[in-house]
Specification:
31% of the residues lie in helices and 25% in strands. It is of the alpha/beta class. The strands form six sheets. A four-stranded mixed β-sheet has the order 2-3-1-12, covered by helices on one side. It has a four-stranded mixed β-sheet with strand order 4-5-7-6. A four-stranded mixed β-sheet has the order 8-9-11-10, covered by helices on one side. Bound molecules: shikimate-3-phosphate. Shikimate-3-phosphate is lined by residues 7, 10, 78, 148-150, 174-175, 296-297, 320.
């Protein structure tokens, strides 16, 4: 069973820590990032215990205690941005810190709406360390200037506790796990077309939940399956939330066949079993616009297999890749070139011609989990050996990745 979805695990960790009562979370992500969320909630008074394979979180009933030290978010932008929304309405001052990568990532995007609601936020040149001075908030109308589920979530988590209604318009529809999670924990919120509204003063109640498998982790194996003619990959309990499932369309467009064997819905999240086989050829693809935003975490691995395709891959409108755990455009281009590929770098994407042969190389992961895993997949079809520097970064979202890759290669 694939490890639990990172995005959903974050939301369950934060909301379980905030809710009243004991939440029991099964198949919680084993990645370091969602555990940063749990650790921060525990620093603010939630009780977190591992009972067998389940994580039990005793919530704070909506009152977060000011922590004794910093809230250490590690490598996790999700923790820092989404948690900022939760603490913005709490009395006290909360200092957020992160590792070297997180300390370079833009935080202005959450400061703007949260300050409009009445919090005061100090940044260091637009980044962490970040101080959030929380207090009574008032609902706002907010139009999201960038496609970001993290910003949306920060606003919804603050809106949940504000006075009056908070409404948010997102022109590009981003992953909607926060909306489902809020409802699962008992909150009411409404969506009308692109507008989401949430009333303040709501209380949350604990839930029992099983986190579906992570589509963004599955993406590495889906792409690996496309590289081998006789591959047959079955993934069960895979999260198939429509706002995360664009990868399945990509696999089909690139020539794979996907059979959905069953699907179930729990707490608004779909999960099921799929079987993937490669078709006769590995085809190229163009990814731009809304699609680029919906595939933002999968683009590195799609790019990493692009040279092996027949028609090449063109990616546009993906400038956000430059402000992820690394500058993912620069690193993908650098590592593809190290493997002998021809590639054109663009400000918001890249062009990678197809029909290329790659050779093994020393890969620089930039300590970015998705770069480390993407190039392990590219290496499968390269001539000669590839060494991934900083491969341990995979542990941020998928500590079992290399074991899984080994097992799948043998079968
Ligand atoms: C995430 C949203 C995306 C994604 C990240 C997780 C989330 O970031 O890249 O890995 O869980 O909401 P943005 O919302 O900043 O685009």
């Amino acid at each position: 069973m694939l490890p639990g979805d990172k995005s959903i695990s974050h939301r369950y960790a934060l909301l379980a820590g905030f809710a009243e009562g004991v939440s029991r979370l099964s198949n919680f992500s084993t990645g370091a990032d969602p555990h940063s969320s749990l650790a921060c909630m525990s620093a603010m008074g939630a009780k977190v215990a591992t009972v067998g394979k389940t994580i039990e979180v005793t919530g704070t009933g909506g009152r977060l205690r000011q922590p004794n030290g910093d809230l250490d978010c590690g490598n996790s932008g999700s923790t820092m941005r989404m948690l900022a929304g939760l603490v913005a309405a709490q009395q006290g001052s909360f200092r957020f810190v992160g590792d070297a990568s997180l300390s370079l990532r833009p935080m202005e995007r959450i400061r703007n709406p949260l300050q409009q609601m009445g919090a005061r936020i100090e940044l260091t040149n637009g980044h962490a360390p970040m101080m959030v001075h929380g207090g009574a908030l008032t609902g706002i109308g907010f139009e999201a200037p960038i496609a970001s589920a993290q910003v949306k979530t920060a606003v919804l988590f603050a809106g949940l506790q504000a006075q009056g209604i908070t409404s948010l318009v997102e022109r590009v529809r981003t992953r909607d796990h926060s909306e489902h999670a809020l409802k699962a924990f008992g909150a009411r919120l409404n969506r009308k077309d692109a507008r989401l509204s949430i009333a303040g003063g709501q209380k949350l109640t604990a839930i029992d939940a099983t986190v579906p498998g992570d589509m963004s982790s599955a993406a590495f194996f889906l792409c690996a399956a496309l590289l081998f003619e006789d591959s047959n990959l079955v993934l069960d309990a895979l999260g198939m939330n429509p706002t995360r499932a664009a990868m399945l369309d990509v696999i089909s467009a690139m020539g794979g066949t996907i059979k959905v064997l069953d699907v179930q819905e729990t707490h608004g999240e779909m999960a099921g079993t799929i079987q993937v086989n490669r078709g006769r050829a590995l085809l190229g693809i163009d990814i731009a616009g809304e699609r680029a935003a919906q595939l933002i975490d999968e683009l590195p691995v799609i790019a990493a297999i692009a040279p092996y395709t027949q028609g090449g891959v063109r990616i546009r409108d993906a400038k956000e890749l430059r402000v992820k755990e690394s500058d993912r455009i620069a690193l993908v281009v650098k590592n593809l070139r190290a493997m002998g590929a021809e590639v054109t770098e663009l400000e918001d994407g890249m062009d990678i011609p197809g029909g290329q042969r790659l050779h093994g190389a020393v890969i620089d992961s930039g300590l970015d989990h998705r770069i480390a895993m993407a190039f392990s997949v590219a290496a499968l079809r390269a001539e000669g050996d590839t060494a991934i520097r900083g491969a341990e970064a995979a542990g941020i979202s998928f500590p079992e990745f290399f074991t899984w890759l080994d097992d799948l290669a043998i079968r």
